[in-house]
Amino acid sequence: MLTLIASFVLQASDPAVDFSGIQDPLGGEPTRVLVLGTSHLNQLPEEAFHPSHLTLVLERLEAFAPDIIAIEAVGGRTCDQIGRYPHLYAGVYENYCRDPAPALDVLGMTQPEADAAVFETLNAWPEAPVAADRRRLAALLYGAGEAWSAALQWAQLDAEDRIAADGVSEALLEQLERLVASRNENNLIGVELGVRLGLETLAAMDDHSADAVYARAPDTLGPVIQSVWSTDVPGDAEMRAQAQSYLGSPEGVLAGYRFLNSPEFQQGTIAADFGLAAATPDEDAVARQYVAWWQTRGLRMAANVIEAAGNHPGATVLVIVGSSHKPYFDAYLDQMHDVELVSVDVVLND
To answer: Which domain holds residue 194?
Structure first.
């Protein structure tokens, strides 16, 4: 009898409600989300990839016309949290956040005050902002910890208007110039599209508050994960070589993005990394702590996307994120009542 009870208690259960797809009926149009998995462009060899190779990708994304562009950058509020808990986030702030001091020192504000000023400024934003408006907003955004949104404002200025004024110091000017010259996809795709579409901000949706999982992990985690990554998974090397083969031309890069976002590539990434880690029993299955970090991070990133679109039901959203995140984002976002996932293959059609 006890055996039967134990078997009943431990039996796996499916969710009582399947949230996938769009609720029917739905008040208004669904929020349409395109999750674009990408290589980290600043890590590609300069001789193989030039920003001009994004021409065809950008044309198609511009035609998609997102109202909101979410990028893989940590937002100001999350960075503020990370900076105040160094025992959980050793080195994380330095690696993933930007010091807002170049803006705050001139503005005479704290970071939360700058964030509040951004909110007020955007609520009263003129239909035809002048250069001084954009410089001031760039300074406020940088002070609020939203450096890429500041870069978007800076990129919309004519060259002669990119000067130290209206809250922009020489030190901040230097940082903004670096951002708009970056080979990072946040700039080459996010900022570029934002300029073309007349957007005022980018949604920073990355999360590294999940890195607290690493702070609590045993020393055995690092070596075990290294062994996972060094495992020879059949087909993995060939798949990654194929991804690199698309570099060198606009046509190749367009085809490459379609490949990176294909089920084949996504399944291969999981099999060689997170799925393999979850299956590894070494050191009391410590590799599952790495998987827990990845899933926690991904869930919070997806939640940040939902927050960014939350006040705009029916918006069209573009998410630009490292390709390893793509399958997880699609799965998480598909659980929302009103999110319609858009096919990358359809948008990036020939």
So the answer is: 74-206
